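Consider the tokenized backbone below.
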């Protein structure tokens, strides 16, 4: 890998983390009582992706804005890595009129036509829309591809298997990605899934499956490079499962009493671990780490200020964009 590529992966991860740290702070601000998800600066539930940044950075480094990506209910890292506008993203999360859905969708329902990005709060339901996008690309003889991301807990849903089957049958230009963060919501994989790796399930549909261990951003980048090239060249779909880590709760407010790995969780944080690798290889210096962090925080602060200064949708217009 070129040094420039490695540095870019690190910068993407830092920007994503900086954004979510700011969201985490404001989400809990002014919430009284604490369980009132409708109160405070940010309404609704909140699912944050801290720890899973290597998946987004490694996959999206191979994509352009004309490639499509469907994400999960934990979507910010993928949105940011795919290049969605930070200001519009923040505005939607804060429930403002300048957001992607004019503040009505919230953080689990982001739709950005300019970058072909979307996500869903329904488990595994990003897979079927990705097939539609991939079918369109193939029909129009485009070299664009679709990427569909879900979690390991969603890989037991019918939508997962139906999508793999149809994509293989029609040789669609799609890359399936499974983020294995160990816990789904609160149950480890060995209590819900019959096999150790969902990548093995790809073989039963006649497509390549690859598992990336250790939350390695470079491992994801390499696996994604192979899968994306296969899809663009007409070779059909592939599946990548990444052993990643969820540093924070399934949702904000999750007590995480079911977890037995909390004592050493910070040791698995992929950002400082990757920084150590880059420093060792002479790609990154402590001064650069500080500068990258400062730039990321400045971009995030600008986006959040934009969101906070934007208008809140009027209650009288609650049904304006509702269609039956």
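A designed sequence for it:
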């Amino acid at each position: 890998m070129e040094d420039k590529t490695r540095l870019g992966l690190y910068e993407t991860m830092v920007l994503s983390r900086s954004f979510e740290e700011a969201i985490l702070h404001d989400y809990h601000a002014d919430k009284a009582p604490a369980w009132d998800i409708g109160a405070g600066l940010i309404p609704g539930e909140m699912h944050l992706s801290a720890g899973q940044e290597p998946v987004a950075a490694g996959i999206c480094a191979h994509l352009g804005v004309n490639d499509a990506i469907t994400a999960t209910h934990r979507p910010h890292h993928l949105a940011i890595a795919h290049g969605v506008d930070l200001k519009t993203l923040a505005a939607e999360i804060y429930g403002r009129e300048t957001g992607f859905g004019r503040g009505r969708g919230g953080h689990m329902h982001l739709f950005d036509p300019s970058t072909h990005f979307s996500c869903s709060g329904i488990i595994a339901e990003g897979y079927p829309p990705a097939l539609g996008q991939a079918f369109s690309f193939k029909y129009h003889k485009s070299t664009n591809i679709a990427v569909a991301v879900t979690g390991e807990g969603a890989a037991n849903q019918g939508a997962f298997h139906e999508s793999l089957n149809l994509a293989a049958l029609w040789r669609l230009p799609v890359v399936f990605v499974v983020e294995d963060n160990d816990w789904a919501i609160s149950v480890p994989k060995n209590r819900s899934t019959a096999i150790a790796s969902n990548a093995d399930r790809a073989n039963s549909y006649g497509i390549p499956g690859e598992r990336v261990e250790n939350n390695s951003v470079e491992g994801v980048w390499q696996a994604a490079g192979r899968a994306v090239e296969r899809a663009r060249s007409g070779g059909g779909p592939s599946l990548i499962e990444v052993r990643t880590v969820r540093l924070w709760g399934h949702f904000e407010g999750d007590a995480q009493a079911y977890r037995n790995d909390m004592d050493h969780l910070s040791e698995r944080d992929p950002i400082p671990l990757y920084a150590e690798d880059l420093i060792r290889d002479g790609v990154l210096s402590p001064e650069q780490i500080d500068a990258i962090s400062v730039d990321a925080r400045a971009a995030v602060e600008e986006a959040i200020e934009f969101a906070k200064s934007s208008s809140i949708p009027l209650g009288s217009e609650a049904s304006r964009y509702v269609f039956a």
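The longest strand covers residues 174-180.
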